[in-house]
Design a protein that fits this description.
Blueprint: E1 2-5, E2 12-15, E3 22-25, H1 30-41, E4 48-53, H2 66-73, E5 79-81, H3 98-112, E6 117-119, E7 150-151, H4 159-168, H5 193-204
Parallel strand pairs: 3-4, 3-6, 4-5, 6-7
Antiparallel strand pairs: 1-2
Helix pairs in contact: 1-4, 4-5
C-alpha cells in the first residue's frame, strides 16, 4: 500500500506490502505504534505478530515497557524477547555496540519465529545541519542489511513524516512514551532529545 507523507516542501512516499508471516517490533514509542496501525489499515494484511525487546531502554528500567505496548495495542499476546541483552554490557569478549545487538536480535527473531518479514520503526535522525536550532548532535546512522528479512519502511523518513502519517490516519499517540529523561510512569519531560524531536516534527508540519 502506498503512503505519502510530510510537509509540502518535503513530501515522501513509502510502500508497505506485508506478505506471509509478519511481525513488528514495538517499544511503546510513537514510531513503532504508528507503523503497527498502518499495517492494520492495509487490506488483506496477514496477522501481525508483535515483538517487544527487553532492553530497559537506553536509560534503564522503567523505560520501553511491555505494558505500554499492551496498552497501545489492546493486545496481550506480545512476544517478549530477552536474548542477546548481555551483549550490551561491556564484559569482553561478549560486548557489541547497541546497533549490532539490534540487528543480531532482529535476525534471531526472524529465524526463531519463522517470519517472512519483521518490521521496525527505525527512522532518520533530524538533519541538524539544516536545523541548527535543534540542540542535539546525532552520531548514530542506521542501516538495514539488504540480505535480511527485516524491513524498516520509515528508514528514509524524518520525525515529521511519521507524525504526518499519524495525523492523516487518525492514529492517537497520546499513550505512547518516548522520553529519555522520565520513565513511563512519569510521562514526558519536554526537554530531552526525544521530546524535543517530537516538538520539532510537529513544527515542520505547520
Amino acid at each position: 500500500m502506498r503512503f505519502e507523507c510530510g510537509p509540502e516542501w518535503d513530501r515522501r512516499v513509502i510502500n508497505i506490502e506485508p506478505k506471509g508471516r509478519i511481525g513488528v517490533l514495538m517499544s511503546g514509542g510513537a514510531d513503532s505504534y504508528i507503523l503497527y496501525q498502518l499495517l492494520r489499515k492495509i487490506p488483506d494484511c496477514p496477522h501481525i505478530h508483535i515483538f517487544w525487546i527487553e532492553t530497559g531502554g537506553t536509560t534503564g528500567p522503567g523505560w520501553d515497557l511491555v505494558e505500554t505496548v499492551q496498552k497501545l495495542t489492546r493486545r496481550y499476546d506480545i512476544h517478549e524477547i530477552t536474548e542477546f541483552l548481555h551483549h550490551t554490557i561491556n564484559d569482553t569478549p561478549d560486548y557489541l555496540p547497541f546497533d549490532q545487538v539490534v540487528i543480531k536480535t532482529n535476525d534471531w527473531i526472524v529465524e526463531k519465529y519463522s517470519l517472512d518479514i519483521l518490521y521496525n520503526g527505525t527512522n532518520m535522525n533530524p538533519p541538524t545541519e539544516f536545523f541548527p536550532e535543534f540542540p542535539f548532535a546525532y552520531e548514530q546512522h542506521w542501516s538495514i542489511p539488504e540480505y535480511t528479512k527485516v524491513k524498516a519502511p520509515f528508514l528514509h523518513l524524518y520525525k515529521y513524516h511519521i507524525l504526518d502519517l499519524g495525523k492523516q490516519y487518525n492514529i492517537d499517540i497520546s499513550e505512547a512514551h518516548s522520553c529519555n529523561t522520565f520513565p513511563t510512569a512519569e510521562g514526558h519531560c519536554g526537554e530531552c532529545r526525544s521530546c524535543r524531536e517530537k516538538v520539532w516534527g510537529y513544527e515542520q508540519l505547520k
